[in-house]
């Protein structure tokens, strides 16, 4: 087996005293956190605890109301919207519950889309490596509609990895999959972290999915209230109950 640690980014995302308010609502209330490089972190919390807001701010989709978010060492609060978009495209990968593939494009075209949008040149060797790693080498000319849900999510993962991002954010990536396919996708995410040193952040409601992570952050009312390292599904469910 090959490892590609040398090819991963030196930077991750760090947040310092981050708040986000919507009118009177304090959706994030003083978040300070740096995602460990090469680590797999799950973020959990009850409905309304601020998970989506956390994901949006940490990934540069949105700007905090106060505090600092650094992506690859760059303070996103100081960037124009256009520059933040560019930084996000180059430094962050996304995987969503709904896959978000372009139906008219084949697998390879979908995977290459972030490079195309950013005017970046594909690295053929890395593309082949990513496609092989997610198990799609014999599917590159298929369209999304010709693939199972699990395969479509693998395409989305390959698309997230193709730019060699600092951090991949996965938002309920198994939410649309049956339990067996969900386990396969989680096992693949774990393998990608272990084999490539990719930093990964998973936002999920599902203790079984979160248990694949190195550690779980628990959000409540916009704050990080706990971290569980090397968590079992039972320990996660237990902590969840008391939030
Ligand atoms: N655009 C917005 N405008 C106003 N209030 C918002 C907005 N986005 C989020 N909020 C509020 O901020 C708080 C945190 O919401 P957020 O969506 O981050 O929580 P969540 O943990 O992701 O919830 P869920 O699990 O239900 O998706 C909630 O009180 C929510 O109503």
Structure description:
With 243 residues, this protein is an alpha/beta fold. It starts with 12 loop residues before the first strand and ends with a helix. The chain has one domain: Rossmann fold (3-Layer(aba) Sandwich), CATH 3.40.50. It contains eight helices and ten strands. The strands form two sheets. A six-stranded mixed sheet has the order 6-7-8-3-9-10, sandwiched between helices. It has a four-stranded antiparallel sheet with strand order 2-1-4-5, with helices on one face. Strand 1 (13-22) and strand 2 (25-34) form a beta hairpin. Adenosine-5'-triphosphate binds next to strand 2 and helix 1.
What topology does this entry show?
Elements: E1 13-22, E2 25-34, E3 40-44, H1 51-58, E4 66-71, E5 74-75, H2 81-91, E6 92-96, H3 107-117, H4 124-133, H5 149-161, E7 167-171, H6 179-196, E8 199-203, H7 207-210, E9 215-220, E10 223-229, H8 233-241
Parallel strand pairs: 3-8, 3-9, 6-7, 7-8
Antiparallel strand pairs: 1-2, 1-4, 4-5, 9-10
The protein binds adenosine-5'-triphosphate (ATP).
Adenosine-5'-triphosphate binds near residues 47 and 52.
């Amino acid at each position: 087996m090959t490892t590609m640690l040398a090819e991963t980014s030196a930077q991750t995302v760090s947040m310092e005293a981050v708040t986000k308010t919507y009118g009177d609502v304090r959706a994030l209330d003083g978040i300070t956190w740096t995602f460990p490089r090469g680590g797999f972190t799950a973020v959990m919390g009850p409905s309304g605890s601020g998970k989506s807001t956390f994901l949006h701010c940490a990934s540069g989709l949105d700007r905090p109301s106060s505090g600092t978010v650094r992506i690859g060492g760059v303070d996103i609060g100081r960037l124009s919207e256009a520059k933040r978009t560019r930084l996000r495209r180059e430094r962050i990968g996304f995987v969503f519950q709904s896959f978000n593939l372009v139906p008219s494009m084949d697998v390879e075209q979908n995977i290459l889309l972030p490079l195309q949008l950013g005017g970046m040149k594909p690295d053929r060797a890395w593309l082949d490596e990513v496609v092989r790693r997610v198990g799609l080498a014999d599917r590159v000319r298929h369209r999304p509609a010709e693939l199972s849900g699990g395969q479509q999510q693998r395409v989305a993962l390959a698309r997230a990895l193709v730019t060699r991002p600092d951090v991949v954010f996965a938002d309920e990536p198994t939410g649309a999959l049956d339990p067996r396919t969900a386990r396969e996708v989680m096992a693949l995410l774990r393998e990608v972290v272990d084999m490539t040193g990719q930093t990964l952040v998973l936002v999920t409601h599902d203790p079984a999915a979160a248990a694949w992570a190195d550690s779980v952050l628990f959000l409540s009312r916009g704050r990080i209230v706990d971290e569980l390292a090397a968590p079992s599904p039972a320990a996660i469910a237990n902590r969840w109950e008391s939030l």
